[in-house]
Design brief:
By secondary structure, the protein is mostly helical. The protein contains four helices and no strands. The chain is flat and about 85 Å long. The model has no long low-confidence stretch (mean pLDDT 84).
Length: 113
């Protein structure tokens, strides 16, 4: 019986949240408070809000250009690979490049939407 009680109490203590969980929860609360404070400050200043909007638009445009450049680099790489391939392998290489880059480009486009 004593063994059962000790085991029961031990199980209760072990099933409780760890110190790490408390620290993570406190960290999350602090993050939320900081976000709330920053949002309040941004909402108080219309000029700052406008600047943030402009910067975000520039950032998104830059990301789209980055993905466009990656697609163009993939196209050039494929051309170089096909040009340098032996003539007997060119069609197979072309099909492989097309299939590979088609999937990669689709993934890039999907990740930006």
């Amino acid at each position: 019986m004593k063994k059962d009680v000790n085991e029961y109490i031990s199980n209760i203590i072990n099933s409780g949240p760890s110190e790490e969980m408390y620290f993570e929860a406190i960290h999350d609360v602090f993050k939320d408070l900081i976000k709330e404070y920053i949002r309040k400050k941004i909402n108080e200043d219309d000029e700052l809000k406008k600047q943030i909007t402009e910067v975000l638009e520039e950032f998104m445009e830059a990301k789209v250009k980055e993905y466009d450049s990656l697609a163009k680099m993939a196209k050039v790489t494929a051309k170089i690979g096909i040009m340098s391939a032996p003539s007997g392998v060119k069609q197979e290489a072309l099909n492989d490049f097309m299939e590979t880059f088609k999937k990669e480009i689709e993934e890039i486009i999907k990740s930006t939407l």
